[in-house]
Every structure is written in structure tokens, then in C-alpha cells.
UniProtKB/TrEMBL annotation:
Subcellular location field: Cell inner membrane
Main location: membrane
A molecular function (GO) term: ATP binding
Record key words, sorted: ATP-binding, Cell membrane, Membrane, Nucleotide-binding, Transport
Domain ABC transporter: 16-236
Name this protein carries in UniProt: ATP-binding cassette domain-containing protein
Species for this entry: Halomonas koreensis
Family classification: Belongs to the ABC transporter superfamily.
InterPro entries (alphabetical): AAA+_ATPase, ABC_transporter-like_ATP-bd, ABC_transporter-like_CS, MetN_ABC_transporter-like, P-loop_NTPase
Pfam families, A to Z: ABC_tran (PF00005)
Protein topology in the membrane: Peripheral membrane protein
PANTHER family: AMINO ACID IMPORT ATP-BINDING PROTEIN, GLUTAMATE_ASPARTATE IMPORT ATP-BINDING PROTEIN GLTL
Length: 242
């Protein structure tokens, strides 16, 4: 029996550490001296005003960008990772074929691919859309397809960069349910959002960035009730900060 069909709990995922990370572009510091350790199977929500560096932090943590200074490393074996973006990057093929392709790239034996892809489509409420071209799916359906693709990879760590910012409430609910499913399966989550209500619903802990600096990394309850910095307090009050 292929274990992926049963969605087993993942084994413990090594901590991910960012140590004194700077990211400079054309002489301009965009992230400065960011140190962060992500451990256990927590849901970490990344918050901060526009341009704070949330997407950059996620891309550096996922390895899509290299730091200008400092280092990003796994304290142990690097797990499988997946990233879900605000606008899903999907192939010009059917929903089913997008998943089959991802499984092929992941090296899944061909005889397992179709049942796994079908099961993932069903899990994310897309069974009836299997043959539809992925790029004509609605925004919410595309995001569910991106999540189904990530689900198939059984990532130890999942990065989600503002995955719900252009979705309606029903689609947001589906994405949040999927995040819960990943979490229950043992996937560590790092997710950025602009939606404070969403952060309150999902976060075990919060990373707060402002002006390219990491100002807080705190348990969610403490961050939302008694933030340490005036910037975070102002952000939570809905004030405009740079
Ligand atoms: N590839 C890049 N090249 C140059 N500058 C970049 C690049 N990516 C991001 N920036 C700049 O870095 C800063 C942080 O960008 P980032 O996208 O990480 O912010 P953010 O917190 O995710 O913002 P938002 O909430 O608006 O999505 C911004 O000033 C942005 O213009």
C-alpha cells in the first residue's frame, strides 16, 4: 500500500535557522540582521506592513533567494519543502495533468500517480474539475489545486506567501482548512498574510517585520495581547506605519 494515500503523520522535521541574514539589492538593504529559528510543527504567521520584507523572508527561508550576508540552514536533514504563492504558478494543462506532472517530477512510480492525483483532487474538492484546463479555473480553485499539488509532495515544511489575498470568504475558508490539514499531518507552516483575523485564527506564533527588520517572534497569544514593540502595537491598532 502506498503510504501517500493514507496521509501518515510526518516524522519530526529539523529546525530551520536564519542567522543574521541580510538581503541587499543594488546597494539597498531590504532585510537586515534577521535571525529566526523555526522548530517543531508550528504554524508561524508572518505579519508586517507593505514592503516590510515578508515575501523576501519567505523566499530566503525556502531557498529561492540567497542571503547577501548571514546564512539559512537546516539543523539536520532538510525536509521536502513546498511553496504556495499568492498567484499559483500552474502549467497550461488540465488540473489532473498538473498533479501528474508534479508526481512525475517527484519520482513517484507511474502506477501510483493517477490514484494519488485523483485522491488529492477529491480531497481538495476538485474531482469534478479534473479535466478542466488549470489556467481557466477560478482563483480559489487554482489555489486549491496548488495546495493539492503541495499536499502530494508531503512536505515537512510548507511556505505560503499571502495565499488568500485575492480570494473571497468561501475560498479563504477552504485554504485555511487545508492549512489545518497540513498542520495535523505534521507539516510546519510559515505563512504571510495581511489579514489579522486570519492570523489570529491560524497562528501558533507570529513573526513581525517592519522596514526589513524582524521586530518580534512571539507566541501568538502574547503578540496579539501584549506586543513588545510600539511598531507592532501600532500595526495591531490598524495605524499606518512605515
Ligand atoms: N527581487 C527584488 N528586487 C528588488 N527589490 C525587491 C525585490 N523583491 C522585493 N523587493 C523590495 O523589497 C522590499 C520588501 O518586499 P517584500 O515583497 O518582501 O515585502 P512584503 O512585506 O511582502 O510586502 P507586501 O505586504 O506589499 O506584499 C520592498 O521594498 C520591495 O520593493
Amino acid at each position: 500500500m502506498n503510504t501517500m494515500l493514507q496521509a501518515p503523520a510526518l516524522t519530526a522535521v529539523a529546525p530551520l535557522a536564519l542567522e543574521a541574514v541580510d538581503f541587499v539589492h543594488r546597494g539597498q538593504p531590504l532585510l537586515s540582521d534577521v535571525s529566526l529559528r523555526l522548530a517543531d510543527c508550528r504554524r508561524t504567521l508572518v505579519l508586517g506592513p507593505n514592503g516590510a520584507g515578508k515575501s523576501l523572508l519567505m523566499r530566503l527561508a525556502h531557498g529561492l533567494l540567497a542571503p547577501s550576508q548571514g546564512r539559512v540552514h537546516w539543523e539536520g536533514a532538510a525536509p521536502r519543502q513546498a511553496m504556495v504563492f499568492q498567484h499559483p504558478v500552474l502549467l497550461k494543462r488540465s488540473a489532473l495533468d498538473n498533479l501528474l506532472y508534479a508526481l512525475a517530477v517527484a519520482g513517484t512510480p507511474w502506477r501510483h500517480r493517477r490514484p494519488l492525483a485523483r485522491a488529492a483532487l477529491a480531497r481538495f474538492g476538485l474531482a469534478a474539475l479534473a479535466r478542466r484546463p488549470a489556467r481557466v479555473l477560478s482563483g480559489g480553485e487554482q489555489q486549491r489545486l496548488a495546495l493539492a499539488r503541495a499536499w502530494l509532495l508531503e512536505p515537512g515544511m510548507l511556505f505560503l506567501d499571502e495565499p488568500t489575498s485575492s480570494l473571497d470568504p468561501a475560498a479563504i475558508k477552504a485554504v485555511e482548512a487545508a492549512v489545518d490539514d497540513f498542520h495535523r499531518r505534521g507539516t510546519r507552516i510559515l505563512m504571510s498574510t495581511h489579514d489579522l483575523h486570519q492570523a489570529r485564527r491560524l497562528a501558533d506564533e507570529v513573526v513581525f517585520l517592519c522596514g526589513g527588520r524582524l521586530l518580534e517572534h512571539a507566541p501568538a497569544e502574547r503578540f496579539f495581547t501584549a506586543p513588545d514593540t510600539p511598531e507592532a502595537a501600532a500595526f495591531l491598532r490598524g495605524e499606518l506605519i512605515d
